[in-house]
What does this fold into?
Amino acid sequence: QVQMAESGGGLVQAGGSLRLSCAASGLPFSLYTMAWFRQAPGKEREFVAASSRSGLNTYYTESVKGRFTISRDNAKNTVYLQMNSLKFEDTAVYFCAAKRYGDDYYRETYDYWGQGTQVTVSS
It folds into this structure.
């Protein structure tokens, strides 16, 4: 079956960097749009970034533009989220997601989800 294995979360100081990884298995990875969502305590889950099948098209929520970069390695069945200039408000559980069809990358209509990895940014 499909599995989404996330890693790279942890504790970092404001202004620091962190790189998240999500290794997928059990699906034709190169045919899926990949994305990252996050959920802070007491708040709704929100879209962070998405990558098209080829990785040539990327999309970001306004608050992370210029700081976060999503990328993918289809040969490794892995999607990454490089997070720079981290802020306290970036603190959240980050989820990896995959969807086969549709161009609505910003909506939570993804087929598969990872278990989430905690990112904590200290002031």
